[in-house]
């Protein structure tokens, strides 16, 4: 994953905003022109929607099959309308939504003692069960390494100590950027 420039981040935030707004208003994403400066890279992406400090939707693709802009568009649509934890976003909520994008690096196998809270995101899996938490989740909740491992195991639907008993642990980093607190301004800032 190449680091995205500030201009590329702004363009991707505008793309995600357009996808969310057209999805909410039309219940399908409209075709949106991909910014010419956005790399064609295929990488994992998560789009997170917040209303104030509250999570309003978060959907991602770990293994992206499509170029970055298309993956962001798909995730923005799904975060707005298809996150099973929430009702679909309503048109009157659009002005208060804040969009955050996390572009993931490739996954690497890692031992528990190598995990850096605030730097690494985690994917813990056993068989078909897997759970992923973004790097900013552990920081937001002020978790230490062990708690981060336990919570990621739980997210996978596994026992909280599965990471100690043979579950596969993988780590990744993410380039995270978000709209400012005023969604009308798509000035990226590190999250």
Short description, anyone?
By secondary structure, this protein is an alpha+beta fold.
Helices and strands in order:
Blueprint: H1 6-26, E1 45-51, E2 54-61, H2 68-81, E3 97-104, E4 108-109, E5 121-126, E6 129-133, H3 135-140, H4 145-155, E7 168-172, E8 174-178, E9 189-190
Antiparallel strand pairs: 1-2, 1-3, 3-8, 4-7, 5-6, 5-7, 8-9
The CATH architecture of the largest domain: 2-Layer Sandwich
The protein's oligomeric status is: single chain
The share of residues in extended strands comes to 25-35%
User: Helix and strand succession?
Assistant: HEEHEEEEHHEEE
Please give a structural write-up.
The protein is an alpha+beta fold and 191 residues long. It folds into two domains: 6-105 and 174-190, 2-Layer Sandwich (Glycoprotein, Type 4 Pilin), CATH 3.30.700; 108-172, Hypothetical protein ph0010, domain 2 (Dna Ligase, domain 1, 2-Layer Sandwich), CATH 3.30.1490.150. The chain is built from four helices and nine strands. The chain has helices at 6-26, 68-81, 135-140, 145-155; strands spanning 45-51, 54-61, 97-104, 108-109, 121-126, 129-133, 168-172, 174-178, 189-190. The strands form two sheets. It has a five-stranded antiparallel sheet with strand order 2-1-3-8-9, with helices on one face. Strands 4-7-5-6 form a four-stranded antiparallel sheet. Helix 1 crosses helix 2.
């Amino acid at each position: 994953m190449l680091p995205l420039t500030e201009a590329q981040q702004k363009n991707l935030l505008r793309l995600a905003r357009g996808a969310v707004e057209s999805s909410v208003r039309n219940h399908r994403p409209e075709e949106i022109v991909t910014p010419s400066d956005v790399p064609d890279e295929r990488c994992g992406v998560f789009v997170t929607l917040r209303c104030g400090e509250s999570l309003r939707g978060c959907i991602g693709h770990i293994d992206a099959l499509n170029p970055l802009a298309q993956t962001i568009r798909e995730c923005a649509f799904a975060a707005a309308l298809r996150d099973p934890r929430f009702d679909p976003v309503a048109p009157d909520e659009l002005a208060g939504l804040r969009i955050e994008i996390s572009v993931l690096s490739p996954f690497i196998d890692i031992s528990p003692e190598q995990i850096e809270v605030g730097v690494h995101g985690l994917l813990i899996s056993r068989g078909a069960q897997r759970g992923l938490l973004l790097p900013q989740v552990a920081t937001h909740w002020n978790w230490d390494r062990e708690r981060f491992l336990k919570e990621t195991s739980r997210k996978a639907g596994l026992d909280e100590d599965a990471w100690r008993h043979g579950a596969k642990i993988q780590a990744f980093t993410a380039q995270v950027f978000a709209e400012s607190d005023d969604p009308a301004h798509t000035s990226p800032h590190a999250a």
